[in-house]
Write a structure and sequence with these properties.
Radius of gyration: 25 Å
Mean pLDDT: 82
Low-confidence stretches: 121-141, 363-374
Shape: globular
Distance between the termini: 45 Å
Structural class: alpha/beta
Oligomer: single chain
Largest sheet: 5 strands, parallel
């Protein structure tokens, strides 16, 4: 790589890691923990690309994007953020960020995107947007929260297709948040002032049902909910209408729980209609495919309940572990309902494991909680965990990337316990683990491990 990169992040470790990596790649780097300093560099004409955090002590990276675009229209900005929600990705896209990456980021991936930013100037003119302006009320509190790779890819995909006039097919199990994705695609698009019409199979059953729905939608958005349940006559009418609607019609979104591509291949769904609906396919992961997001989702629902005037609650560590162990067949909707019920019924500020067990009705996997692990080998424990993980998918394969996910799950506690055993001494910890000290530092940054130095008698 060749060029000057401006790095703005209040985390000194991140600044150090990025400075070292970019310098080794051949870049010149200016790093700061101040938004004011970054803006001064931009105004002075420094830098060929920017990597900026969102939340800074003296400013906000998203709020700075329009100003940067006005001062330097061709200066690409990569936003990195620990605020791992769909709103961050959407705001970054609306404010013309070159790219968006969640924390903890994958360093090689960030380096690749930085190289692309240095090679390519932004094509579009700066958008006249204010990412801090009040968002449409229907979508300001979307429970689309999570830092898992599956959710981050979902955020980026939604942000990319926000204002692309292609039909979007949203697929996933019941309770995963498909309708919330559809609502976000309307509320944060250029069509947000137009109608948002939801059409069910019952609405489309009459002979003039399809035409009536399109008339009501005008230049807004139509969401066809449950398209997989349409009979063949309704499918034919919908296919003909979409074929003749043209660019002046409303935007088309569709939701399906089933695999429409498979249904079309088997002749159970019209193939021509499938291709008219599936301009872009957005698969929404089930909750069991992103178990790591359960703590963040639970906290989100607790905070929202408190804002609505309900008592402030928190989960005990044992209760949180119980939530993490449950298979959640009803997905995010089931978790939301459970949290809301516990907020109302809990006798104390801290929700106990016993209260969670009672609310779940003993639904935690018996094979998980009843196993005697007193003499269990690590390999047996890992095997038991993996078997349960596969069982939760009900005969279907888990999402790809399992190897790296499992390695991460093992790495995090191993490094944390080793650091604790060595009193936070990274040199001793690296020696104990048998890895290079620089490798340990990289892992600490990637896994967001907090290191506290103290005396340890061992």
């Amino acid at each position: 790589m060749d060029g000057t990169v401006l790095v703005a992040d209040d985390d000194r470790t991140i600044r150090t890691v990025l400075t070292q990596a970019l310098t080794r790649a051949g870049c010149r780097v200016h790093a700061t923990g101040s938004m004011a300093t970054l803006m001064r560099w931009v105004e002075d004409g420094r830098g060929d690309a920017v990597i900026s955090d969102v939340v800074m002590p003296d400013g906000n990276g998203l709020e700075a994007l329009p100003r940067i675009a006005k001062l330097r229209p061709n200066l690409p900005v990569i936003v990195i953020s620990a605020q791992n929600t769909i709103m961050t990705a959407i705001q970054a896209a609306e404010a013309e960020a070159f790219d968006y990456l969640p924390k903890p980021f994958d360093l090689p991936d960030l380096m690749k995107r930085t190289a692309q930013a240095l090679e390519r100037k932004r094509v579009r003119a700066p958008a006249d947007v204010n990412p801090t302006s009040e968002a449409p009320s229907a979508a300001t509190d979307l429970p689309l929260v999570g830092r898992t790779p599956a959710m981050q890819e979902l955020y980026r995909l939604v942000a990319r297709v926000l204002n692309v006039d292609l039909p979007v097919l949203i697929t996933g199990e019941s309770g995963t948040g498909k309708s919330l994705i559809a609502r976000a695609l309307h509320d944060f698009s250029d069509r947000h002032e137009g109608p948002f019409i939801i059409a069910t199979p019952d609405d489309l059953a009459p002979s003039d049902g399809v035409n009536d729905v399109v008339r009501r939608a005008r230049g807004g958005t139509i969401l066809f909910d449950g398209v997989g349940d349409l009979d063949m006559d309704a499918q034919a009418r919908l296919s003909r209408l979409l074929d003749g609607m043209g660019q002046s019609g409303p935007r088309v979104l569709a939701i399906s729980q089933g695999d429409l591509a498979k249904a079309a291949a088997q002749g159970a769904f019209r193939e021509d209609l499938y291709y008219r609906l599936a301009g872009v396919v957005i698969p929404v992961p089930s909750l069991r495919e992103r178990l790591e997001d359960i703590p963040a989702l639970s906290e989100h629902f607790l905070s929202r309940a408190a804002r609505d005037g309900l008592p402030e609650r928190r989960f005990s560590s044992e209760a949180a572990q119980t939530l993490r162990a449950f298979p959640w067949p009803g997905n995010v909707r089931e978790l939301e309902n459970l949290v809301n019920r516990l907020v109302v019924t809990s006798a104390e500020d801290e929700i106990s494991k016993a209260e969670v067990d009672l609310a779940l009705g003993g639904g935690v996997s018996a094979s998980y909680v009843a196993a005697d692990i007193s003499d269990e080998r690590l390999s047996d424990s890992v095997a038991r965990h993996l078997q349960r993980y596969f069982d939760l998918h009900g005969g279907t394969l888990p999402p790809s990337g399992l190897y790296q996910r499992i390695l991460r799950e093992v790495e995090l506690p191993m490094i944390e316990i080793a650091l604790d055993a060595t009193g936070g001494n990274q040199a001793k910890c690296a020696d104990l683990l048998g890895i290079n000290r620089n490798t340990l530092r990289k892992k600490i940054t990637e896994l967001e491990i907090e290191v506290t130095r103290r005396r340890k008698l061992m």
